[in-house]
Amino acid sequence: MKKLKPDKQGYYGEFGGAFVPEMLYPNLYELQEQYESILQNSSFQEEFKSLLRDYAGRPTPLFFSKNLSKHFNAQIYLKREDLNHTGAHKINNAIGQVLLAKRLNKKRIIAETGAGQHGVATATACALLNLDCTIFMGEVDIDRQKPNVERMRILGAKVVAATSGSKTLKDATNEAIREWINNPVDTHYVIGSVVGPHPYPDMVAQFQSVISQEIKQQLKEKTGNGHPDYIIACMGGGSNAIGAFYHFIDNGKTKLIAVEAGGEGVYSGKTAATIALGKKGIIHGSKTYLIQTEDGQIVEPHSISAGLDYPGIGPVHSYLHDTGKAQVVNVTDQEALDAAFHLSKLDGIIPALESAHALAYLHKMNLKERDVIVINLSGRGDKDMLTYQKFV
Ligand SMILES: *Cc1c(COP(=O)(O)O)cnc(C)c1O
Question: With 60 as the cut, is the pLDDT of residue 86 above it?
Fold first, then answer.
């Protein structure tokens, strides 16, 4: 577990760091200096844990799926992050960072969102903890993701349209950063995955690590052994994956598998399979693998699931991949859809399209009957009904 910590400059091996414009140095420096002591503080931990328990609904169950186990002839458990308040693991990080912002005496929260899931989680935490909330979202995404935009507004957040460039996530990110530079004293910027400049990847990983802490304890209660043979999680930026892996890294037994979005196929030109295609570079303030052209331009990614539609991965995952501590695989849009419908019929759980990528990989494994597999079911499928309707 210790080995997962980045160094003082935020590096996991050669990945990570903080590559930001000079005007952001004061904001980041404050966070870098303070986040660790705030997170270690016992009254912070107490407040965080009690909100995770009584507000978000943790611990989420670890469900032994008899039906999946029978189908795949192995021992298959689902970690039910879909049962969290707001329907996914993102609330763990949103609550953590908004609490942290309060300890830093910030009055105001900003965040960027693509599909709107992180925006909804952040707006939720801000409503609960009484902080002013502004969410930046590309104009195109505002059109595509109406229900989440309405949710944010009902929760009291201001949704600001990013109207430059492709009017999607990266443009919303630019707007949020500009806003942060202009308001360094009273504003905290909540990033939604283990991406961005140091200390975000480590901070978000720590907030999400509650997932693997619970898995270990719950599996021990159920089987007498807290260490499964495999943990499988989908990977966009990688926050649910690192949360599910955190307490199992280097345990000498558990194989950690992160599943990227293959889109229409790794070589189709419509993919978000970062490790399969990516080269080292800098994206959103950290050094990591990303999908880029020969001359270093970021390539527009594609995935059927909005949450995996990202051209990079968190630096910690580049490190885990390069050191062989985790394995990165990919499945296609179609395989994810099939897996989502399969689980819906088999177990009565409609998963998020993102989570369905993790499930789909089960179909490609060579499992033994005694293998214990935990799938991190990162979210529920309500938000994906429009897509599911088209294919069912
Ligand atoms: C946002 C999201 C993801 C992808 O983000 P990670 O940081 O890679 O976890 C995965 N699943 C669900 C349900 C999401 O909402």
Answer: yes
Which atom, in ligand 1's list, is nearest to the CA of 193? 7
What confidence score (pLDDT) does residue 3 get?
64
- What is the rounded distance in angstroms from the CA atom of residue 161 to the CA atom of residue 177? 14
**What pLDDT was estimated at residue 1?**
46
pLDDT band at 169 (very low <50, low <70, confident <90, very high): confident
Q: In what helix (H) or strand (E) does residue 336 lie, and over which residues does it extend?
A: helix 333-347
In this predicted model, what pLDDT tens digit does every residue of 217-247 receive, in sequence order? 999 999 999 999 999 999 999 999 999 999 9
Judge if pTM exceeds 0.85. yes
Q: How far is the CA of 352 from the centre of ligand 1 (A)?
A: 9
Q: How far does the chain reach from its first CA to its final CA, in angstroms?
A: 42
Region for 245 from its dihedrals, namely left if φ exceeds 0, alpha if ψ lies in -120 to 50, beta otherwise: alpha
What value does the mean pLDDT of the chain take? 96
CB atoms near residue 62 (< 10 Å): 18
Ligand 1 pocket: which of 86, 120, 193, 209 to mutate (most atoms within 8 A of CB) = 193
DSSP 308: G
Give the chain's length: 392
Q: Are 338 and 43 in contact (CB under 8 A)?
A: no
Alpha helices in 269-323 (DSSP H): 274-277, 315-322
Residue of 89, 212, 284, 328 to mutate, ligand 1, most atoms within 8 A of C-beta: 89
Tokens 């985790």 found at: 326
